[in-house]
Amino acid sequence: MHQEDVEKIGKNRIAFVMFASIFLVVMVVVATVSIGRRPNNGKSEVDVSSQSHDQVSASMKAIKTVCQPTDYQKQCVESLQTESGNTTDPKELIRAAFQVAKKHVAAAAKRSRTLKQLEKDPRASLALEDCNELMDEAIEDLQRSFEELGKSDHQARYKMGPMINNLKTWLSSTITYQETCLDGFANTTGEAGVKMREILKTSIELTINAIAMVSKISSILGNLDINREINLGSSHHRGLIENNAKVLWHGGIHVLEHGDLYPSWLGPRNRKLLGLIDQAQFKPDVVVAKDGSGNCTTINEALNFIPKKSNKTTTIYIKEGIYQEKVYLNRSMARVFMIGDGMYKTRITGNLNYVDGTPTMHTATVSILGEFFMAKNIGFENSAGPEKHQAVALRVDADMSIFYNCSMDGYQDTLYTHAKRQYYRDCTITGTIDFIFGDGSAFFQNCKIIVRKPLDNQHCIVTAQGRNVTHQPTAIVIQNSSIIADHVYWPVRNKIKSYLGRPWRIHSRTVIMETFIDDLIQPQGWLPWEGEFGIHTCFYAEYGNYGPGANKTGRVTWQGVKSIDRLEEAFEFTAGKFFDGDDWIKPRGVPYVSGFVTN
Question: Which segments cross the bilayer (predicted)?
Fold first, then answer.
């Protein structure tokens, strides 16, 4: 039997086990519900009132069962009673939970528009404007979750694992968008922030309930221990990756062999673009060139060539040059591939910043929301400087996005990994304070993380991860990378201290493994945000790191700093396991390691 056949059979078996396990969960609920039903005993006369009562009773038992794993059970039960009719179908009840959360988010958006009309504080007014935009994004993801769970059993049967991961990702982003809305009211006057928090209270609770329901299913699948047969050793695992990916290297050039498995929307021509460009054969959809030799002279002009919600890749080649633009790819601009001439040759730069009045979210030089975005050989920069505080170079909300051989340069808040699944390979990220931050599932592999010199009265903090709810699958994971100082900061690194991260949100989660950490990082490793906030509830872990800053002997002893000593524990945060990178990264041809890089 061929290796491909073995793998196919294995995948089908896993899919079947997943489907069967979910079916068992549903049957448990149905059995629970059925207990409350009164048998008809073959009588010809039916007591309609009694049947109706039994149906309501059965529905209530189903609701209570579905709501059992939620954080806000009273809110869950009451909302589903109103929304779900008398259904006892667990899947429809969970979908109803998505719908009721969406209704409350939509109501919050409407009220934010009303508040904006009355607001006099300019920053608060901008925050309310952002809230309206963020609520629209949250509504989109809730609707998408509703539709995903509504797929037929035949569609879902062999895609149970990916479907659950999609739901967790999209529901998580819905929570993130609502929290980001509230962030905007920091340093504002008046009562708009307080009112908005009250308005969003119910919608946030309902969204947390929705992701709790999905997480319960996910935990059952996890307990099946399906993937334990995978060899965790690095050499064997690398062999599997190389064989399965069919990747060839010739003279340092990444070439994709005929017969690779790719997404249907990534055509053969676009697959080759991930490797070194042959200028003679390279035919992108759009060429941006400052000298006028392309279709456009600005990147924003090129965005007009992107079809809305297309199922095919749009390739934009950005020739060497410094492009001083604010670039925004909205949600409808999906499957865009931007490729430049090199991270230090093709540069997109801006200088918007918080001090001068721009909300953090909108300081981003480039913002990307369309899913399946890819970038290669491009530099993203915010040149505002350390005295301007928050100044984002790149904000990413694009699900399953990839950045390969790119740079993100700035000072405070350089890279905003705002939401959803993101993969960074062979990238360089520079900054000072919280310069990798956000609540996406962000994975950095083979990257250079370079700390720059801040103001004299500041510390440097590499990460500030923003997970606020334990059910969220999000984290910042750094693997096989280096954390070092730049040449300006190096002489003062012992005077101006640096740390691996601090808990921006109460359940902040960051994992650093197989990474070189230089001596700029203080022995404590991690820095508090404010007082004891998050230090007992965060999840910070280091595994298999090396270098003078990797010694864990002097690390802080917070409850939230975890000791990962076993291979199996660390394996949970490898790219293949953490966010199913094998499914969406490997097929797109970029260098990628699914498991561990070293022994």
Answer: 12-35
